[in-house]
Amino acid sequence: MVDKVGKGHRLVMENRETIALTGVQKVQSFDPKEIILETELGILSIKGEQLGIKQLNLEESMVDIEGYVSALIYHRRAGGSSRQGLMQRIFR
């Protein structure tokens, strides 16, 4: 079994039509309107029209996506860091 070492997360989008991503750990789901990826920095939702995965290489933690992109949304990871941030905001 190969141990994955964090290589960092990078997102390059061109003209809202193509996206090249690194640091991808898993494709959670995909359809023509939304692709959900698990990255080194958390869950990433890519929303749009006619979205498709052009190339996927999880051994290299890379994915290329094409289609019209209308939104990129990073979701917080569950765990201590999110809770700590919330608690710090409440008790300021």
Short description:
Helices cover about 10% and strands about 60% of the residues. With about 90 residues, the chain is mainly beta. The protein is globular, with a radius of gyration of 15 Å.
Describe what you observe in this structure.
The protein is mainly beta and 92 residues long. The chain has one helix at 80-90; strands at residues 10-14, 18-22, 24-31, 34-39, 42-57, 62-75. The chain has a six-stranded antiparallel sheet, with no helix packed on it. A hairpin with a 3-residue loop joins strand 1 and strand 2. The termini are far apart.
SSE topology:
Layout: E1 10-14, E2 18-22, E3 24-31, E4 34-39, E5 42-57, E6 62-75, H1 80-90
Antiparallel strand pairs: 1-2, 2-6, 3-4, 4-5, 5-6
Beta-strand content estimate? over 45%
Distance between the termini: 46 Å
Helix-strand makeup class: mainly beta
Strand adjacency order, main sheet:
1-2-6-5-4-3
The total of helices stands at 1
Radius of gyration: 15 Å
Question: What is the approximate shape?
Answer: globular
Segments where pLDDT lies below 50 for 5+ residues?
none
- Output mean pLDDT: 85
Largest β sheet strand count, sense and barrel closure: 6 strands, antiparallel
Task: Write down the secondary-structure element order.
Answer: EEEEEEH
Topology, number of strands: 6
Could you estimate the helical fraction of the residues in percent? 10-25%
